[in-house]
Amino acid sequence: MTRAGRYGAHIGRYLSVGVVCAVTHNAIMIGGDFLHASFALDFAISYLIVTPLGYSLHVRHTFKTSPNWHGLWRYAGANAAGAQISFILTVLFISGFGLSAAIAAPVVTILLFFWNFAATHWALRAMPPGVIQRARAAARRAGASFVANWLRAN
């Protein structure tokens, strides 16, 4: 397969997972609005459901890699930053512009697509396997050397 073909397939896999996450998030937001729940509660529930869902789908489907704690924490952190942006935009559209959640949530989802795409790639593709373990081992060796040198000097 050509590089363009692989990239196109990757984008397709990302979009399919993104649609599942977006539909889940929007259903929670619109359902919460229907039940007259607060935006903050809706966002918290959405974050707690969509983050592990998105991570597991992206790991298995989009990137076809093994799940690991480091990737999960990076993904959760990137989603937390995106959730704050999303929350601010949603409050602006609903409270500031008077839009309903049924309109505001999908509009915000579309606006955040590029943030989510970049953040997901940063979280799940930034480090090849084994880099964290090698970095920790190097830090231990460097720390031990630093302490030994400091003790000799003092």
Automatic annotation (TrEMBL):
Q: Which residues form the GtrA/DPMS transmembrane domain?
A: 13-122
Identify its membrane topology class: Multi-pass membrane protein
Q: Which Pfam families match?
A: GtrA_DPMS_TM
Where can this protein be found? Membrane
Keyword annotations from UniProtKB, A to Z: Membrane, Transmembrane, Transmembrane helix
Q: Which residues cross the membrane?
A: 12-31, 37-55, 76-97, 103-124
Q: Which domain of life is it from?
A: Bacteria
Q: Identify this protein by name.
A: GtrA family protein
Organism for this UniProt entry: Candidatus Rhodoblastus alkanivorans
* Organism taxonomic ancestry: Bacteria, Pseudomonadati, Pseudomonadota, Alphaproteobacteria, Hyphomicrobiales
